[in-house]
């Protein structure tokens, strides 16, 4: 944020997605000011008000009421994925920019309506993924794509997830919709498969995969009775393949990826730790390990980044991780993956 810029006035729509802790934690940086919150569940709102010491006067029961009274410049959606469309329908006609939590939408039907509204009313519509802010995500891209450090990219493997929402103890308001096929749009393939699809779309410069093949399974019926909790999505491009594993069955939470080139491999092990192995013969290799510092502001925080985009300090490129173009394709690929898993057949795009 430039010194002369006032904080971006932001409204929060919904408190049932626990990623909302992120924006409350970010506000003290000074890039944004939370001017209104929409949450019909008063008890839930009171819990957050107590934790983050805000007045219940900030809390409204309806979107229209909040938008008309406090006139935010942008809103962030922290309700169900199904509600993302309603948020854009309410905000876009006011010229209010929107950031939603990943993925963009539950279906292509919703995504297309959201895209039309964003274009018609000339608003930014961003999608927020935790891995977008990882220094390792960007260093891996820079090494593989710009510096060609491992030669031509042949395979990318992305692993995301944890033990499952119930097992890690998410609160009941979040659990209720996260494990609902309509409100979340699916199970683990949506909740965690979307990360890998987002990163692949960026790596492949927005090129559609030629085909999508997926399997999904329910390994915890007692915890996730309505949805799958295990997912593998295979994307086939002209010269590259991708394996995306989104799961609620990992013994340890993870968000990591491996990028295999002709000459070596890059391991983005977590947010900060990166390894590069360069081949030396049949099974020998040289390995360099780096621990990266956080990215410079505003590229280290979604809400600082949102403010910079709205203030035209940053111009989003077409297939950037947060961009609408990227995330429209993410929804298309996830829809193909769900179809493939259901039919047992590869889906050509």
What does the model show?
With 349 residues, the protein is of the alpha/beta class. The protein has twelve helices and 15 strands. Helix 2 (42-52) links the parallel strand 2 and strand 3 (59-60). Helix 4 (84-91) runs parallel beside helix 5 (108-120) and helix 10 packs across helix 12 (324-343). It is globular, with a radius of gyration of 20 Å. 47% of the residues are buried. The model has no long low-confidence stretch (mean pLDDT 97).
Q: What share of the residues lie within helices?
A: 25-40%
Q: Ranges with pLDDT <50 over ≥5 residues? A: none
Q: How many whole angstroms does the radius of gyration measure?
A: 20 Å
Enumerate the strands of the largest sheet in spatial order, edge to edge or round the barrel. Answer: 14-13-12-11-7-10-9-8-15
From the helix content, strand content and strand pairing, which structural class follows?
alpha/beta
Q: Major sheet: size, sense and barrel closure? A: 9 strands, mixed
Distance between the termini: 40 Å
**What does the overall shape look like?**
globular
Strand content: 25-35%
Please tell me the overall pLDDT: 97
The tally of strands reads 15
The number of helical elements comes to: 12
Secondary-structure element series: EHEHEHEHEHEHEHHHHEEEEEEEHHE
């Amino acid at each position: 944020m430039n010194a002369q810029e006032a904080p971006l006035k932001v409204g929060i729509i919904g408190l049932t997605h626990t990623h909302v802790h992120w924006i409350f934690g970010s506000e003290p940086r000074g890039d944004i000011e939370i001017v209104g919150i929409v949450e019909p569940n008063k008890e839930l709102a009171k819990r957050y008000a107590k934790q983050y010491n805000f007045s219940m006067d900030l809390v409204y029961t309806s979107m229209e009421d909040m938008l008309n009274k406090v006139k935010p410049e942008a809103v962030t959606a922290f309700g169900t994925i199904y509600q993302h469309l309603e948020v854009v329908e309410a905000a876009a006609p006011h010229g209010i920019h929107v950031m939603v939590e990943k993925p963009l939408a539950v279906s292509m039907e919703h995504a297309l309506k959201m895209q039309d509204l964003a274009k018609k009313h000339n608003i930014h519509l961003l999608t927020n993924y935790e891995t977008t802010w990882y220094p390792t995500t960007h260093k891996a891209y820079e090494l593989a794509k710009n510096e060609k450090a491992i030669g031509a990219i042949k395979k990318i493997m992305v692993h995301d997830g944890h033990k499952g929402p119930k097992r890690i103890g998410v609160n009941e308001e979040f659990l209720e919709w996260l494990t609902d096929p309509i409100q979340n749009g699916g199970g683990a393939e949506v909740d965690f498969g979307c990360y890998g699809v987002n990163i692949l779309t960026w790596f492949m410069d927005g090129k559609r995969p030629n085909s999508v093949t997926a399997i999904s399974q329910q390994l915890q019926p007692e915890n996730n009775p309505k949805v799958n909790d295990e997912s593998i999505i295979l994307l086939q491009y002209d010269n590259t393949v991708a394996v995306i594993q989104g799961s609620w069955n990992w013994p340890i939470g993870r968000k990591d990826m491996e990028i295999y080139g002709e000459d070596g491999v890059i391991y983005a092990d977590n947010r900060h730790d990166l390894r590069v192995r360069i081949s030396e013969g049949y099974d020998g290799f040289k390995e360099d390990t780096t621990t990266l510092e956080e990215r410079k502001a505003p590229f280290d925080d979604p809400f600082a980044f949102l403010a910079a985009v709205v203030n035209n300090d940053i111009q989003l490129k077409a297939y950037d991780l947060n961009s609408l173009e990227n995330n429209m394709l993410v929804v298309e690929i996830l829809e193909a993956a769900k179809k493939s898993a259901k039919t047992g057949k590869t889906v050509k795009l």
